[in-house]
Specification:
Blueprint (H helix, E strand, L loop, with lengths): L2 E10 L9 E9 L4 E7 L3 H14 L11 H11 L10 H20 L3 H4 L7 E8 L7 H15 L3 E5 L17 H18 L4 E5 L6 H10 L7 E3 L7 H9 L5 E3 L5 H10 L5 E2 L9 H13 L12 H13 L6 E3 L11 E2 L5 E2 L2 E3 L9 E2 L1 H6 L10
Parallel strand pairs: 4-5, 4-10, 5-6, 6-7, 7-8, 8-9
Antiparallel strand pairs: 1-2, 2-3, 4-13, 11-14, 12-13
Helix pairs in contact: 1-3, 2-3, 5-6, 7-8, 9-10, 10-11
Bound molecules: magnesium ion.
Magnesium ion (MG) binds next to loops.
Length: 387
Amino acid sequence: MKITDVQACVIGRHEPDSGGSVWTFVRVYTDEGIVGTGECNSASAASGFAVKQAVEVMKRFLIGKDPTNTGPLYETLRRFGRYGGTSSPPIIFAITGIENALYDITGKALGVPVYKLLGGKYRDKIRLYADLHAGDDESPEAYAAKAQEVIEEEGYSAVKFDVDHTGVGKLDPVNWTVSAKEMTHIINLIAAVREGIGYETDLAIDCHGQFDVPSAITLAKAVEPLRLMWLEEPVPAENIDALAQVRAKTSTVICTGENQYTRFEFLELLQKQACDVIMPDLSKAGGIMEAKRIADIADAFYVPIAPHNVSSPLGMMAACHVCAAVANFLVLEFHGREIPWWNDLCDGDKPFIRGGWMHVSEAPGIGVELNDKVAKSLLWPGDTYFD
Ligand code: MG
């Protein structure tokens, strides 16, 4: 089997509270008629089109090659332009999407689901947490009510809220320092949600790297009695030593990783003891096998993996194959609750989300396909769909 063509297109719309919902999809075509699709998360149209360009440039390394040679093809793409940033975004996003498409083809060619190519599965269904927003109401009561409503109605065993940009008490729009009023409000929000849902449902809190070290330490220490599943990106992602400082000062579980890529960056995070949980975004971090490597490195540090996920059902199912195949999987994010067309965009074993879980597909390959009609209708303005 040989690769005959590689194409990409940008699909999605910016939906409120959606975590981006702009995705670049890659299709790899073969001379045997098997087509593989992979998703690269982009989160913005600018990045989406940059990823598409990168895919089109890298096509020349793929045409005529055996698509089941997934490892060497991935490493060729990553190494060919190391000095041009192939281990960094947005090019690593493009490589991730191509690698996912190659795994989709390989699974289809062998008649097996992707998790079997990773050594088999530890679990049939993947535990999810719901990323929640209370809407325009920034009161602690609104946050608590939202959490209770979603847990009761949809069955999640874990939820997450953002606490940056509440708009309450911010004195300076530029510096990362949390004012006394803002800090009090944030702590009240977290305490209200914890009181509302009790201690038998997991609660994570995301700071989006918006705080400085002293503010992050104050917050992390203040919420220690609230037993968070984790406090996410309490400081910006670039300085791992700064995050390690925060982690050393608190017993609150610290999580990071949606802005880190490839095994090398996660190795550094773990060696510097900067976090307790890692959360690579599996549509960005390098690919299906790269995610397995990242998880295995974390496992050697006895650190769990809780992947970040704002993908379509296709990228999310690709993540589920990895989550199924690693021992140290904790929980996977679901960010599509507020996207009205999230389910319609893809075909597969529906409903994709059942009672706070996603069942791992047993179909050959990734097991989820784009619905061409819906995907075409959601093509980003100015782009063209696959041939
Ligand atoms: Mg986050």
